[in-house]
Amino acid sequence: MTTTPLAERTTTVAARATELSKVYGQGETQVVALDRVSVDFRQAEFTAIMGPSGSGKSTLMHCVAGLDSFSSGSVRIGETELGSLKDKQLTKLRRDKIGFIFQAFNLLPTLTALENITLPMDIAGRKPDKDWLHKVIEMVGLADRLSHRPSELSGGQQQRVAVARALASRPDIIFGDEPTGNLDSRSGAEVLGFLRNSVRELGQTVVMVTHDPVAAAYADRVIFLADGRVVDEVHAPTADAVLDRMKRFDAKGRTS
Ligand SMILES: Nc1ncnc2c1ncn2[C@@H]1O[C@H](COP(=O)(O)OP(=O)(O)OP(=O)(O)O)[C@@H](O)[C@H]1O
Ligand SMILES: [Mg+2]
């Protein structure tokens, strides 16, 4: 009986792209950034997206997160088709259901760490769930830094504020575009640990773009993009397994 929630967790889809294409420009200068990509991001799963520069990773993330329009195909967040939404509804869905962690932390310099963490909810006029907020702050280890401004925090601490901000409103899914790209390896490892814990302990769904096989190894699975297509997938990745796949794609790229 106790196994039912786990079974549900593995089958519930937090976000889904179906035959998703994104074309930039037209004619001679046309770039197919995404070429009929179909992928599921399951609830309480940590997915890393990898692939060479220009392979479409950021484009895929932006389209699935409702930050960018797409040319054809469809995107679903939970049960909601993004294509069916008007701008206002899309903005609301982004605000209520999606969390973002960007490489530049996007913290407001005049606000304290705590104010930065609760800012999206303050804007949305929502009261944070106190217990949840406490849990998130404890998890990212910021309890004694809450009244500091970003300039008084280290890069790793600032990124942890950004992680806490994404987690605070309990979004259905969190997207990060190289969220640890600017951090030294120790701070990066910490942030990745928090992301993984949020998936394991809090049932959070996380999708992260990364170039780093070590970072990808924190995920439950890695999907590989090349030329706007999903070309491979690794489950329970190790850094070595990821590196091995990357080498194979490089070799293919050179010979084809
Ligand atoms: N606004 C745009 N106008 C035209 N082409 C674009 C635009 N944004 C992205 N592209 C092109 O789409 C393709 C995919 O870009 P994308 O940013 O998704 O790559 P990426 O995998 O995130 O690369 P990186 O690892 O360098 O961040 C690239 O060929 C890029 O040049
Ligand atoms: Mg990118």
Automatic annotation (TrEMBL):
InterPro entries the record matches: AAA+_ATPase (IPR003593), ABC_transporter-like_ATP-bd (IPR003439), ABC_transporter-like_CS (IPR017871), ABC_transpr_LolD-like (IPR015854), MacB-like_ATP-bd (IPR017911), P-loop_NTPase (IPR027417)
CDD domains for the chain: ABC_MJ0796_LolCDE_FtsE
Any GO MF annotation of the entry: ATP binding
Sorted UniProt keywords: ATP-binding, Nucleotide-binding, Transport
Pfam families in the record: ABC_tran (PF00005)
Coiled-coil ranges per UniProt: none
Occurrences of domain ABC transporter (ranges): 15-252
PANTHER family named in the record: ABC TRANSPORTER RELATED (PTHR24220:SF685), IMPORT ATP-BINDING PROTEIN (PTHR24220)
Protein name per Swiss-Prot or TrEMBL: ABC transporter ATP-binding protein
Organism: Streptomyces tauricus
The organism's taxonomic lineage, starting at the top: Bacteria, Bacillati, Actinomycetota, Actinomycetes, Kitasatosporales
